[in-house]
Amino acid sequence: MFSICRQTHPATGIEHAVSCCFFNNDEVCLVTAGTNIIKVFRLLPEGSTKEVNAAGQPIPPKMKLECLASYTLWGNVMSMASVHCPSTGRDLLLVSFKEAKLSVLQYDPQTNNLITLSMHYFEEDDMKGGWTTHPHIPWIRVDPEFRCAVMLLYGKKLAVLPFRKDITSEDGDPLEAKPFVENKKNQQPAEPIARAPTLASYVIVLKDLDEKIDNVLDIQFLHGYYEPTLLLLYEPVRTFPGRTAVRNDTCAMAGVSLNMSARVHPVIWATGGLPFDCLQAVPIQKPLGGCLIMAVNSLIYLNQSVPPYGVSLNSIATHTTNFPLRIQEGVCITLDGACVAALGEGRLALSLRGGELYVLTLLSDSVRSVRSFHLDRAAASVLTAQMCVIEEDFLFLASRLGNSLLLRVTERENRMLFSVDKPLEATVDLTLTEAEREAASSEQQQQKDAPTDPAAKKRRMDTISDCVASNVIEISDKDELEVYGSDIRTSTQLTSYVFEVCDSVLNICPLGAVSMGEPALAAARGVELVAGAGRGKNGALCVLQRSLRPHLVTAFNLPGCIDMWTVRGPGGASPETEAGGAPHAYLILTQEDSSMILQTGQEINEVDNSGFMTSAPTIFAGNLGNNKYMVQVTTAAIRLINNGVLLQTLQLEWVGATAAAADPYVCVVSSCGRALVLALREFRAKDGMSARLAPTRQGVPARPGLARAAPYADLGGLLTAGHPAEVKGEFTGKKGKNVKAEGFKPGAVYELNDEDELLYGGDQTPASMASIMLAEQSKNPGVPRRMSRWWKKYLTEPKPTYWLFVVRNNGNLEIYSLPEMRLSFLVRDVCAGHRILADSLESVPIITNPMEDEELNSSVHNPDVDKLKELLVVGLGHKGSRVLLLMRFDDDQLMIYQAYKYPRGNLKMRFSRIPVSFPFGYRSGRTQTTPDEGDEVATLRENVRQLRYFSNVGGYNGVFVCGPTPYILLLPARGELRVHPLAADDAPVPTFAPFNNTNCPQGFLYFNAKSSLRISALPTHLSYDAPWAVRKVPLRMTPHFVTYHLESKTYCLVASVPGSATSYYKFNGEDKEKSSENKGDRFPYPSQERFCVSLFSPVSWEIIPNTRIELDEWEHVTCLKNVSLSYEGTRSGLRGYIAIGTNYNYSEDITSRGRILIYDIIDVVPEPGQPLTKNRFKELYAKEQKGPVTALTQVFGYLISAVGQKIYIWQLKDNDLVGVAFIDTQIYVHRMLAVKNLILVADVYKSISLLRYQAQHRTLSLVSRDFRTAQIYDMEFMVDNTNLGFLVSEADGNFAMFMYQPQARESYGGQRLIRKCDYHLGQQVNAMFRIAARHPPSAPPPRRHVTMFATLDGGVGYVVPLTEKTYRRLLMLQNVINNYACHIAGLNPRAYRTYKPLRRGGGAAARGILDGDLVALFPSMPNAEKQDIAKKIGTRVDEIMADLYEIDRLTAHF
Length: 1454
Prior knowledge:
Elements: E1 2-9, E2 16-20, E3 29-34, E4 37-45, E5 63-72, E6 77-83, E7 92-97, E8 101-108, E9 113-121, H1 125-128, E10 140-142, E11 148-153, E12 157-162, E13 202-205, H2 206-209, E14 216-221, E15 229-234, E16 251-257, E17 267-274, E18 278-283, E19 291-295, E20 298-303, E21 306-312, H3 316-320, E22 326-327, E23 339-344, E24 347-351, E25 356-364, E26 370-380, E27 386-390, E28 394-398, E29 404-417, H4 434-443, E30 468-469, E31 493-505, E32 513-517, E33 528-533, E34 540-545, E35 551-557, E36 563-568, H5 575-580, E37 584-590, E38 595-600, E39 604-606, E40 618-624, E41 629-634, E42 637-642, E43 645-651, E44 656-662, E45 665-670, E46 675-682, E47 691-695, E48 706-714, H6 735-738, H7 755-760, H8 768-777, H9 792-795, E49 801-808, E50 813-818, E51 822-827, E52 836-837, H10 863-867, E53 868-876, E54 882-889, E55 893-901, E56 909-913, H11 935-942, E57 947-953, E58 956-961, E59 967-970, E60 978-981, E61 992-995, E62 1003-1007, E63 1012-1017, E64 1029-1034, E65 1038-1045, E66 1050-1060, E67 1063-1067, E68 1072-1076, E69 1087-1097, ...
Parallel strand pairs: 1-91, 21-22
Antiparallel strand pairs: 1-90, 2-3, 3-4, 4-5, 6-7, 7-8, 8-9, 10-11, 11-12, 12-13, 14-15, 15-16, 16-17, 18-19, 19-20, 20-21, 23-24, 24-25, 25-26, 26-30, 27-28, 28-29, 29-31, 32-33, 33-34, 34-64, 35-63, 36-37, 37-38, 38-39, 40-41, 41-42, 42-43, 44-45, 45-46, 46-47, 48-49, 49-50, 50-51, 52-56, ...
């Protein structure tokens, strides 16, 4: 059985985050990595602010994250670090991969991609030292002064990567155009020779440094040493908590000085006898230096030549270690699973395992030895995987279990000064006014109960719902400060911090349980996915929909319409039009030889005397002059209309083919290859009747012939000739002020604001010198970066500029500036689909007279241009700053290019192609012309625009793609391109228009296949700024299982809430007894999960009232299934029941027992005012079994349960279970699946077995099993016509597919299941389900099933069987495309997808599953490469495209 595996929803969890200058040295970005995806974000201010912090420095405004780049790698990121490298113009990124690979990456503006500067591979056999399993993570650590980096290899060795000395010099980017200086020695080349920033790497064996070094727990570089000094935290002889009475303080640390030129590495500082539970080391920045050792129960500060200072954080530390520890009063926390980030000098932010945020302050005396710690609980937040500080004022919490958060950190000073010679009393601040003091006390009302009573946190059930801020500003005890003699007067300023949530990044992982259900809205057909995600207070239910199902307002039939437009009326400045934009006043429908004008108010009716022309078909209609005027372009004329009054008619001297507008310009392209650009002129501004359209002075050059043209108004300031904020160090004075607007010379770049306006915002008047000095100071490391107000440049509003994009018949793309019509950008052969569109004028000066230049006017006809059917340029994203260029071809290609900044050339930008994959395949609509239609109607149909820009549909701006496969392309403020297909039932959609109306606010109109005009809106309960349309419903408990109950149309949910347990069960010889222990206030009691079962309504997305059933204490739910059982009591036939298996977890001394619970969901009379309470649980059966119940399923109406090491078959009779058959199994069965009479059983350790139930003999027998040991996570059947395969997901992120083939020799006569295919996904899969493959209504149904999977990293994908012919063709494609695809970081797709067995001898990889993610890169490759690849495998491009399209259509679900 051949198949293809493809991930359709990318992983969303974030595990690593660093902040660095990714694109250039002027802008600090946040780089995140999770699984195999690296994303780069920048911070954008939401608005300006005048706040200052405690030190009187300006505070940046709240920021939003905008994703600027996203890279998918062929390998999972294990560790990531950045190296500041000013000499190359931007920072380096160091990324490590499993088991020991290291790549040095850097952004390359020429290709707009990551390039690999060097690769380091340490996986030779002699490196591994004979070990076959490698649990060690290859950590990367970088020296704080960027002299070298090290990576831990297999826990036994260190790879050292020295850097060149000159990478930290301030040279700037070699690409930046430098002004040409006339000097004597101008013979040297302009470009410096690029050298690799790294020198040769080498390896240190840790045993050579010190015999005892083994079991490395952490490595860190220390601050303030002359040579790079590495601290190793290790445990020479291991122990564990049950053995601490005999052997406790086992950890040790060593400081190693790295002399890289001589390769000598002396140990200069060593300490032993640290507590056994040490976790990590945190280097402390200068002036204190040294390091902080974090153990589970204690914190220890170590520094060379200073006595250590340690505190115990709870009462466990006092009797597990002999290390001298003081008691830290008022806290009882543990640091396992904690993350840490440095906030400033001697201050650290700690995020604990439960999501609490603490600020740790190191209080030191005058000789810089730490003499006390202060821990301050600041907020409760998301469960964090890594923390990262950006631009000193922002803290990013990367999370794998909840939404990642961006917090703004503000210092709030309490002015509490301690003088050591007088005892500390709680100082009341008298400088505050009464009102301020009240405000402060109301903000801090929670500080007294926050550490003790977590339930006192306010529950904020809003969108983020993960952060509750409460400031604790108190010093709890007078003994916290010790007196070292009364003559030293030292005072410490304790700063409390306020954390505010700025932004959150949506994350839906880990997807533990997934269920398919029907959408509750009556109009929506199809299936949606409901998945449990998150953990603890970040637990949520995610509702996922792949396709977009419009909410239908009304529909009516209108046959014969080819095209339509909506035009906004001159809306008054009423409040509702301000919020949602002016309502649309007219709807214009194009028919074959005429136009139909409908007025749209409360109702829609046809009008005659609207000023619009009805006798000719309309090819464009829109608004000009800020929605004041309407313009209509027909094939024969152009009309300008104001509020139903015709102002102007221009007859066209040729037949109009297409037209477009960018306020205030209109561009009309004729069918003979000419273009006309008109501008709106208002002669008297008050009088609305005086406006006219006039052609621009310079016309568009007519030779060579035009193919397409599109005007574009750039509001984001990207397409400007030299941006004022980017000119470095050149001061043009204030000449911009007194030049009148008419006196501008075209071609000269004037700079309207000089540097101090950028710094202070225009109202100050110091000379430019002062601002230069300030800019110089802000580069010093001592001055905080916020003094230079780095966020100011994002707040300047750029002036709109106007451009005309033209594609000519010779294949050139030209960009002209309007109104001067100056050629500013030229791309040769734009239709070839290159990855980068570079400006051919970059190296040539601007051509003064374009008519003379031979090269531009080569009238060679480019055959690719004939296929170009449409050109559209739009600005989407934050304030329209992301410029997209879309080109639609009739060979089923839609190319999308995005403009990006590039340091050279006239416009300082280039276009790079976005590799967009259309989830349901893309077909560009071909026009079916009937022979009796005239030529004009055929061209009219052919020129109907399929790419429709819309603004404010449901609050989103984007492009609607019409045709047989309709899509909505969105690029919201988050900055990632989202492609949402329209539900397949409506396709094909010939035309679309946005529609804002009182009855349908922010809606849209479209025609479906049956020529019915549908007035629709976007469903508002979903968020579309995600790879799939998603709704995240916060539960605030951990979801374990969810399943859909078809009869009652509800979801059954099993969730658990943690609570702390002070009692436990002891075994007293014959039975168990409960015993309670009181260990005092400072003992961290273990948490115990309390499980509950409830019904969840898909209508309101909340738990139905009164349906929650609490299970017993200590009882854990191990499985939940919706089973259909035959009920022999009162009725016959099958009925769906909810079956639950549980287990009582007491302790290892007490035998495990569990229960089987069977519930029926019955209809009852709902309570008044609560219509959803019509469903309740009815308990049919709940009895204890002989062992733990670990898996359930059904066969032939019987219930099958795995109880302990046996599998039983039960029959439900009179509310009791009667045994039918049983069989003995392996170690621990945790999944069972049945199809017909076959039962597939998965064992936690012993792989899978296949059982068969024979009804006539009532026996259960083993048919076949897999002989290997493998840890199975989940499994599902693969159905391909008459073949049945068993798809299994394993612990290492592998897929394996088994088949039962008794006639094969290697199956030992059918005893052994044969592994036919395998594949490495790189993510663990814990949920799988099947759905029948889609098929077009005309074709016979393909008899195969799509097996869907959801991963623990938030990804969703499918495995679908293929025919052998398709498989062979795509396999050849996969092998060839491997050499064409971009291997970021030097990772090879083939190596990534090879099956990785847990231990050696697992058999060779069988492959047999295609890598759908690699094959899907084919459509977005350049045309020449496509032809090349197709030629190499001996087929045609369109055959490959047809195969890929067919796979996309088979899997077009949800």
